[in-house]
């Protein structure tokens, strides 16, 4: 955190653009215990279609691969909540890693976790219908980022139903239908950009997620 000062960001602000060449790595930071940072990592195709690769939250890095490989950005990064980022210059970031070999191991572990997430989404797309794919990603998000609230577990990330659909490769209409089915079953409750898992055990069983 001492490499660069924190800068405030606003929900909806674009922090990185796919294809652009910049020399910064972003470290995400919460503005307080009740205001975690959250960004969306979005990949776009030439025909205008978009895929939501993943969600990054407080403590995560974004842009590290482009810095290490000296390439353009592979995705666009957009803040989905107010928060703060540390914009780490590439040379300072790489210098920090070289001075701290343990940090390289931790970075490799983080990248491994992201690869596991991406591979799991590909497997889910092959093996499950939209409702189960959505249930599986909600269970995993709740496990990674959720926190207890009255009546269940808040997902911990602010996503629309369409964005949830993009996480599992589903069209907006299919995602909305799947969310409605999970809600009607009593497993989740929904609000504006908010999902509460009301019955985590039931949702986990439906999602066929191993404990």
Describe this protein's structure.
It is globular and about 50 Å long. The chain has a 4-stranded antiparallel sheet. The chain contains 7 helices and 12 strands. The mean pLDDT is 90. The protein is α+β, with helices and mostly antiparallel strands. A hairpin with a 5-residue loop joins strand 4 (38-44) and strand 5. It has helices spanning 64-69, 90-99, 101-127, 130-145, 161-167, 172-184, 200-207; strands at 6-9, 14-16, 24-29, 38-44, 50-57, 61-62, 76-79, 83-89, 147-149, 152-154, 188-191, 194-197. Helix 4 (130-145) packs across helix 6, helix 4 crosses helix 7 and helix 5 (161-167) crosses helix 6.
Set out the fold topology.
Blueprint: E1 6-9, E2 14-16, E3 24-29, E4 38-44, E5 50-57, E6 61-62, H1 64-69, E7 76-79, E8 83-89, H2 90-99, H3 101-127, H4 130-145, E9 147-149, E10 152-154, H5 161-167, H6 172-184, E11 188-191, E12 194-197, H7 200-207
Antiparallel strand pairs: 1-8, 2-7, 3-6, 3-8, 4-5, 4-7, 9-10, 10-12, 11-12
Helix pairs in contact: 2-3, 4-6, 4-7, 5-6
Provide the structure class: alpha+beta
Largest sheet: 4 strands, antiparallel
| Fraction of residues in β-strands | 25-35%
Number of helices: 7
Order of helices and strands: EEEEEEHEEHHHEEHHEEH
Low-confidence stretches: none
Radius of gyration: 18 Å
Principal-axes shape call = globular
Number of E strands: 12
